[in-house]
Structures are given as structure tokens and as C-alpha cells.
Design goal:
Strand content of chain B: 35-45%
Number of strands of chain A: 17
Helix content of chain B: 10-25%
Structural class of chain B: alpha+beta
Mean pLDDT of chain A: 86
Low-confidence stretches of chain B: 1-30
Order of helices and strands of chain A: HEEEEEHEEEEEEEEEEHEE
Shape of chain B: elongated
Number of helices of chain A: 3
Low-confidence stretches of chain A: 1-24, 141-148
Number of domains of chain B: 2
CATH architecture of the largest domain in chain A: Sandwich
Shape of chain A: globular
Oligomer: heterodimer
Largest interface: A-B, 80 and 79 residues
Structural class of chain A: mainly beta
CATH topology of the largest domain in chain A: Immunoglobulin-like
Largest sheet of chain A: 6 strands, mixed
Strand content of chain A: over 45%
Mean pLDDT of chain B: 81
Distance between the termini of chain B: 26 Å
Chain lengths: 275, 165
Amino acid sequence: MRFLKGFGLFLAAACSAAAFTPAIAAGDLLVAPTRLVLDGSRGTEVVLNNIGAEPATYRISLEIKRMTAAGGLDEIAEADATDAEKAALAMIAFSPRRVTLPPNQPQVIRVGVRVPEGTPAGEYRAHMLFRAVPDAAPAVADAAKPAAEGVSIALTPIYGITIPVIVRVGDLGAEAVIGDAWVSETRDGPAFEFDLTRSGNRSVYGDIEVTRPGVAEPLLLARGIAVYPEVGARRVSLRVPPELAAKLKGPVHIRYSEDREIGGGTIDAADRVVK
Amino acid sequence: MRNFGMKRALLGAAIAVLAMNASAAQAATATGTAKARILRQITLTNTSDLQFATIISGATASTVAVSTAGAATCGSGLTCTGTTTAANFDIQGTSGAVVLVGGDSSVTLNGSLGGNMTAALSYSATNVTLSATGGSFKVGGTLSVGANQASGDYSGTFNVTANYQ
């Protein structure tokens, strides 16, 4: 049956031959929403869509990631996971785990949570990874290549999207405080940076708005900045164009607010003089 | 499949999938998208590949570097032909959203006629703040070519992810 279904998809793809573009890598994808917060009583859905021009097979899995003090997310092998991280993997169920989609075909991934009795209060988190399973691309045969001398290369990226799946057990709370702010020259270009300190037993998540006192239009807006429970503080580093970096120097008002979807209340606000 | 209960739930799901034909699956997803609820989304599109083009190896080991801008530096003793490009990924999503970029720092390439090479990978950014028109990041690399590297077609895969926090 699975084979037949696959064959059906193949036929559908073959019929719409106009959409067939051989040189483009399959695996482009859309994922919505971009974050899941569950309280354990009911499940939810994530939509995966093949936005590429060819049919593609996607694999869905759960990964463990830990936030770093620099604000990155380190991938952690399952063998190195803590008990809480293993508990997160065990309590999040989802289906399907592998799906083949023709172009522009969305698929709903159902996500459920089962919190075992006696689970300590806290925030449990895993990151759901959506990734195309690549067709092995052959190295491009180059007619101009001298026989038995040349080396040609084919590198296939296996690319995907991760979104956090957060399960909250018990009554949790957290606060955040904005620290020093400055403009610095990073390896990737100028960046607006500041420290964000977190306290409490869950993550904080929200939007950053930087304004100049007396000017309504924000200088900088960055949405979806989290501080996860495994870190007490992180650096937020936002790359900015050089002209904006120059403009950000001086007195600014920084506001860290909750997600608009849950009211947008202020988590912390601070006046800083950016050097 | 981490505990018995979940195994049973998955088995149920597997049976449900088997019982569904393709059109039923499409009907099910159509119901899902018919709800008038706007979800925040992210899309990731691979718009160009990391291309080292064609290299003719020399008597000593050397390297070929492709910067994240796509410019090639052909090491001494090597002959490089063809057009090099950096891999490019486009991200679309909510304006202002900060997306973290992660991926393998190196990749091993296996030759069709034996032999292998490694390439160190470099990323143009560790995070991308999306504008109204989205954002992008690039992946370049430095390929280590051995002395008298066996000719052939070398291929390898590397992992790249765009992560919402």
C-alpha cells in the first residue's frame, strides 16, 4: 500500500511534467507554526509543506539542543542527554515521522504530550527537526575535464528547520533583566549586543524593541528571542547594517516584551547608553 | 517508541495511514488548512550549491577555498577550472524574527574511484534577523586536496539547519 501510494505520487509528478526541474535540489520546505508550548493536557499540530518543485521525502525527528551563553543552540547527542532532556523526548509523541509530499502538498504532523505521573514540575523541551531525505546527487560530469586527471565535486546539503516543542509541568514563572548594551564589530560584521539575565524555573521568550527617546519609530526590532532554563544569562547579538550600527550609539530604550500572541506585556525595559 | 504506550499509539497511527489512500490523505490536510487561523511560518530554500568546480591535483597537498561570497582561492600546485559558488539558503518568515543557523563544520567526500577528501565549512552568519523580504545565509568551504589525489567524482553530504528559538 505504501508502495502504491508512492507510485501514485510518482504518477502525479510525472503527469505534471511542467513542474519538473531536474537541476534544483529537492527538499525546500515550509513549517508552521515556529514554536509549540504545551501544558500536557492536549496536543497540537504542525504543518509541513513541500515548497520545492519536485516531490520530496521528509523525515521528522526530535533533537536535544542546549542554549549557549553566546545565544546559540548546541546539538546534544542522545547519549549525553540529561534525565530532564530524556524525559522531554519520552513525553512528546508525534506522527507521521516520514512523509513523501508532491510539490505544494501540505501535511499535518500531530503532536501529543503524555506527562507521566510524578514528573517533577519544570519545563521540558525538545526541538522538532523537519528535514528532507536527499537523493544522492552524482558529481556533475564535466565534459571539459581531462581524462584521469580531474577531480569533480558534488556536495549535497541536507537542510532542515527546527522548532522548539516546550512542555510545561506545574506552576512555573520566570523573569528577565536587560544588562549592558553595546555595538561591536563581529566576524560577521557590526552587531548590536546586550546581555539578558533570566531567573525562575522556565524559559522567557519575546520580542526586543530598541527605540531612541523621543522618536516613535523603533531603531531595531528583533522577534523571537528566548533565554532557556539551562542558561541563567545569554548574550543577544543582532547583526545590523553599518549605518544602523552608527545610529544605535547613544541613549536608547530597550524593551523586552512577551509574544504578541499572549498579550505582549513587558518582561523588562531599560534605558542604556550604547557605546 | 520510547515506551510501550507510545509504541501502541504509533502502531495505531501506522494502521490509520495504511487504511488511508492518497486522496483521503489530501482530504485530511485540506480540512487542516481550511481553518481560518494564521500560523507563523518559516520556509527554507536552497538556491545554490557549494561548487568547487573541477580541480586537477598536483604533486603536493594543497587546498581550494570557496569563500561565503563564492570567490575561489586555488592553492599552489593545483589547477582549478569552472565556476565556483557558495551554497545559498533563503529563509522567509515573520519580519523581525531571529533565526539561528547551524550546521556541520566539516564534510568528508568519497571518490567514485576510491580515495576521499575533507572540506571545512564556513557559514556567513550564526543568526539571521529576517526583514520584510526574508533573509539568507551562505556556506563556503576549504577543500583539502591530497598530493596526487586520485581523480574521480567526489561526493558528500552535510547538514544545515535553520533553528527557531
